[in-house]
Amino acid sequence: MLFAKDKVEFYNKLKRILAEKGFLLTPLVDINGGLQFQFQYKEDFGLIRILEGEKGIHLDLSEIKNKKVAEEIESSLVASDNIIHYYEDYNKSSQKEKKPEKNSSDILNSLISDPNEIIGIDDTGKNDYFGPLVIAAVHTNQTTKNKLEALDINNENILNNQIRLSRLADKIKEICPHSIIILSNKSFNEIYEKMKNINHMLAWGHARVIENVLNQSPCKYALSNQFNNASLINSSLMSKGKGITILHKPKPSENITVSAATILAQDAYLMNLQKINDTFNMTFPRGCSTNVLETARTFAGKHGKESLNYIAKLSFESSNFN
After folding, report:
1. CA–CA distance, 284 with 280 (Å, rounded to integer)
2. pTM (2 decimals)?
3. 7-98 topology per CATH
4. Contacts of 98 (CB under 8 A, 6+ apart)
5. Which residues of the chain have pLDDT under 70?
6. ∠58-62-63 over CA atoms, to 5°?
Protein backbone atom coordinates (compact mmCIF):
# COMPACT_ATOMS: atom_id res chain seq x y z
CA MET A 1 0.00 0.00 0.00
CA LEU A 2 1.10 3.59 -0.62
CA PHE A 3 1.61 5.53 2.63
CA ALA A 4 1.54 9.31 2.99
CA LYS A 5 1.05 11.90 5.71
CA ASP A 6 -1.83 13.61 3.89
CA LYS A 7 -3.90 13.51 0.70
CA VAL A 8 -1.62 15.92 -1.18
CA GLU A 9 1.48 13.85 -0.50
CA PHE A 10 -0.47 10.74 -1.48
CA TYR A 11 -1.48 12.39 -4.76
CA ASN A 12 2.07 13.51 -5.56
CA LYS A 13 3.43 9.99 -5.04
CA LEU A 14 0.58 8.42 -6.99
CA LYS A 15 0.98 10.94 -9.82
CA ARG A 16 4.63 10.07 -10.34
CA ILE A 17 3.90 6.35 -10.31
CA LEU A 18 1.07 6.69 -12.85
CA ALA A 19 3.14 8.99 -15.08
CA GLU A 20 5.82 6.29 -15.28
CA LYS A 21 3.12 3.84 -16.40
CA GLY A 22 1.98 6.14 -19.20
CA PHE A 23 -1.05 7.74 -17.55
CA LEU A 24 -1.87 11.33 -18.55
CA LEU A 25 -3.43 13.29 -15.67
CA THR A 26 -5.55 16.45 -15.56
CA PRO A 27 -5.01 19.16 -12.92
CA LEU A 28 -6.08 18.36 -9.36
CA VAL A 29 -9.52 19.49 -8.10
CA ASP A 30 -10.56 19.89 -4.45
CA ILE A 31 -13.79 18.10 -3.52
CA ASN A 32 -15.66 17.57 -0.28
CA GLY A 33 -13.53 15.19 1.77
CA GLY A 34 -10.64 14.89 -0.63
CA LEU A 35 -9.23 15.43 -4.10
CA GLN A 36 -10.03 14.19 -7.57
CA PHE A 37 -8.50 14.20 -11.04
CA GLN A 38 -9.15 12.66 -14.43
CA PHE A 39 -6.76 10.53 -16.43
CA GLN A 40 -6.21 9.04 -19.84
CA TYR A 41 -4.47 5.69 -20.22
CA LYS A 42 -4.12 4.38 -23.78
CA GLU A 43 -7.73 4.65 -25.07
CA ASP A 44 -9.41 4.79 -21.64
CA PHE A 45 -10.52 7.77 -19.59
CA GLY A 46 -11.53 7.77 -15.95
CA LEU A 47 -11.85 9.59 -12.66
CA ILE A 48 -9.82 8.94 -9.50
CA ARG A 49 -10.64 10.27 -6.05
CA ILE A 50 -8.36 10.49 -3.03
CA LEU A 51 -10.54 10.64 0.11
CA GLU A 52 -9.24 11.62 3.53
CA GLY A 53 -11.19 10.84 6.70
CA GLU A 54 -10.91 9.63 10.28
CA LYS A 55 -9.67 6.24 9.11
CA GLY A 56 -6.97 7.76 6.95
CA ILE A 57 -6.54 8.13 3.21
CA HIS A 58 -8.60 6.04 0.79
CA LEU A 59 -8.06 5.68 -2.97
CA ASP A 60 -11.44 5.53 -4.73
CA LEU A 61 -11.29 3.83 -8.15
CA SER A 62 -15.02 3.14 -8.38
CA GLU A 63 -15.53 5.61 -11.25
CA ILE A 64 -13.16 3.70 -13.54
CA LYS A 65 -15.29 1.65 -15.94
CA ASN A 66 -12.46 -0.50 -17.29
CA LYS A 67 -11.64 -2.83 -14.41
CA LYS A 68 -8.34 -3.82 -16.02
CA VAL A 69 -7.19 -0.22 -15.77
CA ALA A 70 -8.22 -0.12 -12.10
CA GLU A 71 -6.24 -3.31 -11.51
CA GLU A 72 -3.25 -1.77 -13.31
CA ILE A 73 -3.35 1.18 -10.90
CA GLU A 74 -3.65 -1.07 -7.87
CA SER A 75 -0.78 -3.27 -9.01
CA SER A 76 1.38 -0.15 -9.38
CA LEU A 77 1.12 0.43 -5.65
CA VAL A 78 2.66 -2.91 -4.71
CA ALA A 79 6.00 -2.94 -2.84
CA SER A 80 5.24 0.43 -1.33
CA ASP A 81 8.35 0.52 0.87
CA ASN A 82 10.59 0.67 -2.20
CA ILE A 83 8.29 3.21 -3.80
CA ILE A 84 8.31 5.46 -0.74
CA HIS A 85 12.08 5.38 -0.40
CA TYR A 86 12.51 6.15 -4.06
CA TYR A 87 10.19 9.13 -4.00
CA GLU A 88 11.54 10.51 -0.75
CA ASP A 89 14.94 10.63 -2.45
CA TYR A 90 13.28 12.12 -5.52
CA ASN A 91 11.63 14.87 -3.47
CA LYS A 92 14.95 15.88 -1.88
CA SER A 93 16.44 16.55 -5.30
CA SER A 94 13.27 17.65 -7.10
CA GLN A 95 14.49 21.20 -7.65
CA LYS A 96 17.36 19.88 -9.72
CA GLU A 97 15.38 17.27 -11.62
CA LYS A 98 12.29 19.29 -12.50
CA LYS A 99 14.02 20.83 -15.53
CA PRO A 100 13.61 18.30 -18.32
CA GLU A 101 13.60 20.95 -21.01
CA LYS A 102 16.96 22.38 -19.87
CA ASN A 103 18.52 18.94 -19.60
CA SER A 104 17.24 18.05 -23.06
CA SER A 105 18.54 21.30 -24.47
CA ASP A 106 21.97 20.65 -23.01
CA ILE A 107 22.01 17.22 -24.63
CA LEU A 108 21.21 18.61 -28.07
CA ASN A 109 23.43 21.67 -27.80
CA SER A 110 26.38 19.47 -26.84
CA LEU A 111 26.16 17.75 -30.21
CA ILE A 112 27.97 19.15 -33.23
CA SER A 113 24.94 18.26 -35.32
CA ASP A 114 21.62 16.53 -34.81
CA PRO A 115 21.77 12.77 -34.19
CA ASN A 116 22.02 10.62 -37.31
CA GLU A 117 18.82 8.84 -36.31
CA ILE A 118 15.95 10.88 -34.94
CA ILE A 119 12.16 11.07 -34.82
CA GLY A 120 10.72 14.45 -35.76
CA ILE A 121 7.22 15.40 -34.61
CA ASP A 122 4.90 18.26 -35.47
CA ASP A 123 1.20 19.07 -35.28
CA THR A 124 -1.26 21.36 -36.97
CA GLY A 125 -4.85 22.42 -36.48
CA LYS A 126 -4.57 23.43 -32.84
CA ASN A 127 -4.98 27.10 -33.78
CA ASP A 128 -7.68 26.46 -36.40
CA TYR A 129 -11.33 26.57 -35.36
CA PHE A 130 -12.39 24.39 -38.29
CA GLY A 131 -10.86 21.04 -39.16
CA PRO A 132 -9.10 18.29 -37.23
CA LEU A 133 -6.08 18.24 -34.97
CA VAL A 134 -3.28 16.35 -36.71
CA ILE A 135 -0.03 15.08 -35.20
CA ALA A 136 2.67 13.45 -37.33
CA ALA A 137 6.02 11.81 -36.65
CA VAL A 138 8.80 10.78 -39.04
CA HIS A 139 11.91 8.68 -38.40
CA THR A 140 15.09 9.34 -40.35
CA ASN A 141 18.65 8.05 -40.48
CA GLN A 142 21.50 9.45 -42.56
CA THR A 143 20.40 7.58 -45.68
CA THR A 144 16.80 8.76 -45.55
CA LYS A 145 17.86 12.29 -44.60
CA ASN A 146 19.92 12.46 -47.79
CA LYS A 147 16.86 11.43 -49.78
CA LEU A 148 14.73 14.08 -48.06
CA GLU A 149 17.35 16.76 -48.71
CA ALA A 150 17.18 15.91 -52.40
CA LEU A 151 13.44 16.70 -52.26
CA ASP A 152 14.12 20.25 -50.93
CA ILE A 153 11.47 19.79 -48.25
CA ASN A 154 12.77 22.71 -46.13
CA ASN A 155 11.51 25.13 -48.78
CA GLU A 156 8.89 27.28 -46.99
CA ASN A 157 6.94 27.78 -50.21
CA ILE A 158 5.92 24.12 -50.17
CA LEU A 159 3.25 24.81 -47.54
CA ASN A 160 1.58 27.31 -49.90
CA ASN A 161 1.23 24.81 -52.73
CA GLN A 162 -1.21 22.05 -51.84
CA ILE A 163 -0.52 19.93 -54.92
CA ARG A 164 3.23 19.94 -54.30
CA LEU A 165 2.63 19.42 -50.58
CA SER A 166 0.61 16.25 -51.24
CA ARG A 167 3.19 14.88 -53.67
CA LEU A 168 5.99 15.43 -51.17
CA ALA A 169 3.91 13.86 -48.40
CA ASP A 170 3.52 10.73 -50.52
CA LYS A 171 7.27 10.58 -51.14
CA ILE A 172 8.07 11.03 -47.44
CA LYS A 173 5.72 8.16 -46.61
CA GLU A 174 7.55 5.97 -49.13
CA ILE A 175 10.99 6.85 -47.75
CA CYS A 176 10.52 7.05 -43.97
CA PRO A 177 8.82 5.16 -41.14
CA HIS A 178 6.05 7.49 -39.98
CA SER A 179 2.83 7.84 -38.03
CA ILE A 180 -0.08 10.27 -38.37
CA ILE A 181 -2.88 10.74 -35.83
CA ILE A 182 -5.94 12.63 -37.04
CA LEU A 183 -8.43 13.72 -34.38
CA SER A 184 -11.69 14.60 -36.09
CA ASN A 185 -13.58 17.51 -34.62
CA LYS A 186 -16.04 15.16 -32.92
CA SER A 187 -13.18 13.20 -31.34
CA PHE A 188 -11.33 16.39 -30.40
CA ASN A 189 -14.40 17.78 -28.66
CA GLU A 190 -15.05 14.55 -26.77
CA ILE A 191 -11.45 14.31 -25.53
CA TYR A 192 -11.22 18.00 -24.67
CA GLU A 193 -14.43 17.75 -22.65
CA LYS A 194 -12.70 15.15 -20.49
CA MET A 195 -9.15 16.56 -20.37
CA LYS A 196 -9.89 20.31 -20.46
CA ASN A 197 -6.32 21.04 -21.53
CA ILE A 198 -5.01 21.36 -25.07
CA ASN A 199 -1.38 20.98 -23.95
CA HIS A 200 -2.18 17.63 -22.35
CA MET A 201 -3.94 16.55 -25.54
CA LEU A 202 -0.93 17.55 -27.63
CA ALA A 203 1.46 15.77 -25.28
CA TRP A 204 -0.67 12.62 -25.49
CA GLY A 205 -0.73 12.82 -29.30
CA HIS A 206 3.00 13.46 -29.61
CA ALA A 207 3.71 10.54 -27.29
CA ARG A 208 1.43 8.23 -29.29
CA VAL A 209 3.06 8.97 -32.66
CA ILE A 210 6.48 8.47 -31.10
CA GLU A 211 5.37 5.07 -29.80
CA ASN A 212 3.88 4.17 -33.19
CA VAL A 213 7.11 5.01 -35.02
CA LEU A 214 9.19 3.10 -32.47
CA ASN A 215 7.11 0.04 -33.30
CA GLN A 216 8.45 0.37 -36.86
CA SER A 217 12.03 1.41 -36.16
CA PRO A 218 14.07 1.80 -32.92
CA CYS A 219 15.45 5.24 -32.13
CA LYS A 220 17.06 7.01 -29.16
CA TYR A 221 16.13 10.62 -29.88
CA ALA A 222 13.03 12.62 -30.76
CA LEU A 223 12.65 16.30 -31.60
CA SER A 224 9.26 17.92 -31.26
CA ASN A 225 8.00 21.29 -32.42
CA GLN A 226 6.22 21.31 -29.05
CA PHE A 227 9.53 21.61 -27.22
CA ASN A 228 7.99 23.62 -24.36
CA ASN A 229 5.88 20.55 -23.55
CA ALA A 230 8.79 18.12 -23.41
CA SER A 231 8.06 17.16 -19.80
CA LEU A 232 4.40 16.50 -20.61
CA ILE A 233 5.39 14.38 -23.60
CA ASN A 234 7.81 12.40 -21.46
CA SER A 235 5.14 11.69 -18.85
CA SER A 236 2.78 10.45 -21.58
CA LEU A 237 5.21 7.96 -23.13
CA MET A 238 4.58 4.27 -22.61
CA SER A 239 6.93 1.27 -22.48
CA LYS A 240 8.78 1.69 -25.78
CA GLY A 241 9.04 5.45 -25.46
CA LYS A 242 10.51 5.49 -21.95
CA GLY A 243 14.01 4.96 -23.35
CA ILE A 244 13.86 7.88 -25.78
CA THR A 245 15.25 11.36 -25.14
CA ILE A 246 13.06 14.32 -26.12
CA LEU A 247 15.49 16.93 -27.40
CA HIS A 248 15.04 20.68 -27.03
CA LYS A 249 16.03 23.02 -29.82
CA PRO A 250 15.02 26.71 -30.16
CA LYS A 251 13.98 26.27 -33.82
CA PRO A 252 13.10 22.60 -34.29
CA SER A 253 11.41 23.37 -37.61
CA GLU A 254 14.90 23.86 -39.11
CA ASN A 255 15.53 20.14 -38.63
CA ILE A 256 14.75 18.27 -41.85
CA THR A 257 13.03 15.42 -40.01
CA VAL A 258 10.69 17.84 -38.23
CA SER A 259 10.07 19.53 -41.59
CA ALA A 260 9.03 16.15 -42.99
CA ALA A 261 6.61 15.69 -40.09
CA THR A 262 5.25 19.19 -40.72
CA ILE A 263 4.51 18.29 -44.34
CA LEU A 264 2.68 15.08 -43.35
CA ALA A 265 0.64 16.92 -40.73
CA GLN A 266 -0.26 19.84 -43.01
CA ASP A 267 -1.18 17.54 -45.88
CA ALA A 268 -3.45 15.42 -43.68
CA TYR A 269 -5.09 18.52 -42.20
CA LEU A 270 -5.80 20.11 -45.59
CA MET A 271 -7.16 16.87 -47.05
CA ASN A 272 -9.56 16.49 -44.12
CA LEU A 273 -10.58 20.14 -44.24
CA GLN A 274 -11.34 19.74 -47.93
CA LYS A 275 -13.60 16.78 -47.14
CA ILE A 276 -15.55 19.02 -44.77
CA ASN A 277 -15.76 21.71 -47.47
CA ASP A 278 -17.08 19.17 -49.98
CA THR A 279 -19.55 17.61 -47.55
CA PHE A 280 -21.27 20.90 -46.73
CA ASN A 281 -20.55 22.73 -50.00
CA MET A 282 -18.88 25.56 -48.10
CA THR A 283 -15.36 26.92 -47.69
CA PHE A 284 -14.18 26.79 -44.09
CA PRO A 285 -11.22 29.13 -43.50
CA ARG A 286 -8.24 28.42 -41.26
CA GLY A 287 -7.44 30.30 -38.06
CA CYS A 288 -9.83 32.14 -35.71
CA SER A 289 -10.47 35.42 -37.52
CA THR A 290 -13.71 37.39 -37.87
CA ASN A 291 -14.21 35.60 -41.17
CA VAL A 292 -14.12 32.28 -39.30
CA LEU A 293 -16.81 33.49 -36.89
CA GLU A 294 -19.05 34.63 -39.74
CA THR A 295 -18.62 31.25 -41.46
CA ALA A 296 -19.57 29.52 -38.21
CA ARG A 297 -22.71 31.67 -37.96
CA THR A 298 -23.66 30.88 -41.56
CA PHE A 299 -23.12 27.15 -41.01
CA ALA A 300 -25.12 27.14 -37.76
CA GLY A 301 -27.95 28.99 -39.48
CA LYS A 302 -28.17 26.25 -42.12
CA HIS A 303 -27.46 23.12 -40.09
CA GLY A 304 -28.02 24.07 -36.45
CA LYS A 305 -25.41 25.13 -33.92
CA GLU A 306 -25.16 21.60 -32.53
CA SER A 307 -23.73 20.46 -35.88
CA LEU A 308 -20.59 22.52 -35.23
CA ASN A 309 -19.46 19.53 -33.16
CA TYR A 310 -18.61 17.77 -36.44
CA ILE A 311 -16.60 20.54 -38.11
CA ALA A 312 -15.24 22.80 -35.36
CA LYS A 313 -13.34 22.81 -32.06
CA LEU A 314 -16.00 23.85 -29.58
CA SER A 315 -13.46 24.87 -26.92
CA PHE A 316 -12.61 27.94 -29.02
CA GLU A 317 -14.27 31.25 -28.17
CA SER A 318 -15.58 31.33 -31.75
CA SER A 319 -18.32 28.94 -30.58
CA ASN A 320 -19.70 31.54 -28.16
CA PHE A 321 -22.21 33.27 -30.41
CA ASN A 322 -25.98 33.47 -30.41
Report:
1. 10
2. 0.65
3. TATA-Binding Protein (3.30.310)
4. none
5. 1-4, 55, 75-113, 226-231, 239-240, 248-252, 322
6. 120
